[in-house]
Amino acid sequence: MNFNQIRYFLAVADSLNFTSAADACGVSQPALSKAIRKLEESLGADLFDRSAQRVELTAFGRTMRIHFDRIEDNRRKAVDAAKVAAKTSIEPLNVGVMCTVGPHRFSPFLEVFRSRHPHIEITLHDVTAPVIPELLLSSTLDCVFCARTTKFDQRFQMIDLFREHMVVAFAKGHRFSNQETVTLEEIAKEPYLDRLHCEFRDDFLRITKGSGLELEVAMRSEREDWILELLKTGMGVSIMPANSVIPGSIAHRPISDFTNERNLKLVMTVNATVSPMLIALRDDAATFDWG
Q: Model-level pTM?
């Protein structure tokens, strides 16, 4: 059985005339008749009642027509999809993600964007806040998801995505788990894991110092994944954005006397919208339900 045999059968089933079906399929009538005979032999039953006056589908033929219609429909869809894929080239997009942006809220957007734009190949780059303008202006990156405390100038355009609070994170079972909120004084009594790339780090250190509190730093790291792993093992506590906390592995609480929050933005240069790929990313990010 092959696709041509099915196509010939369906043509005869539609016209109930072998000559007309052959013309429609662009083959000779003997070739079409021979192909249908081979199809019947492979199936083990006649598909048509043939006589000098007329051609009719057998009961078996009517049953098989339902199945062959589905096969032909799927064949056409596959051919159409192949044509689109052949014409569509993969377009690269270099996207920066600030190293303090947690994946918990960000990855669902990437999943939806990928499903809507499979021809766009995204490469994610880990970036820190100070180098973002240079990376965008040099076209090293096409856009960046970030939360900077300093403002961007008129060379950049920004899309506000969502806001998130800073919280204190700690291992499950830590004594903070029994509290609704935690104070800076209580945090200062715990070993502290210092996130070196946190954009609020200087503000936090200034506030604690101004309050007469001295942090007992157990470990410092530029890498968020290391800090999260150290939190998980109970080595200390840390201040971080709520969405950086991995659900189920570590816990967090609001800080009663430190209410900083940050606004996550999508940033690109003002000239970046000449790219259809960036327009698609910008529009999808702007309309995505970030929760």
A: 0.62
